[in-house]
Specification:
By secondary structure, this protein is an all-alpha fold. It contains nine helices and no strands.
Length: 181
């Protein structure tokens, strides 16, 4: 049984009510769908996994990924979906190393979507629609900007995917333009 987007959202909302986390979930979903389409993969599957990747974060921040595993298993989610969600925390809160293209993509775009959104918010337009890679790269070098974003994780994700960082950033911006103002 492959969960639908509607089922994923319903389960997510059982554990979360924070609108900021919901926007993040949607941003990661959009990035995952975009990269799945580019790779000729199942965009619905990738998107659903992106949507629920932080399902446990609001209630269990200190048990992030381990509680997600428990929540998804109890809901009867397929093992490969659960593994993908847990792998996005590799080296931070999980010892499950991303192996598949889907897992590596989730690992790479999770932090990046937040960084891109932060970059957009300081623009006069407050929009990703006119955000360029060069603007993101300028902010990248300023450690105090979006200081909570682990740039090393994003860089490691780009390497895992065999992508230049600029390409990963550019494609993620394109993905976010589909769902953000």
């Amino acid at each position: 049984m492959n969960p639908t987007r509607e089922e994923a959202e319903k389960l997510w909302r059982q554990y979360n009510d924070d609108e900021g986390l919901w926007r993040h979930a949607q941003a990661v979903e959009a990035a995952m769908r975009h990269f799945a389409d580019k790779a000729g993969e199942d965009a619905d599957r990738w998107g659903v996994i992106g949507l629920v990747h932080d399902i446990d974060y609001q209630q269990y921040p200190d048990q992030h990924c381990s509680m997600a595993k428990q929540i998804l298993e109890q809901a009867g989610w397929p093992e490969d979906y659960v593994r993908a969600v847990v792998s996005h925390g590799w080296g931070i809160c999980s010892d499950v190393e991303p192996q598949s293209l889907l897992e590596k993509t989730l690992f790479a775009v999770d932090e990046l979507t937040g960084f891109i959104q932060a970059c957009a918010l300081v623009r006069p337009s407050k929009s990703v629609q006119d955000l360029e890679v060069s603007s993101v790269k300028k902010k990248w070098k300023t450690a105090a900007f979006a200081a909570g974003v682990n740039r090393q994780v994003i860089e490691k994700g780009a390497v895992m995917l065999g992508l230049e960082l600029d390409t990963l950033i550019g494609e993620t911006i394109i993905a976010l333009r589909k769902v953000l103002p």
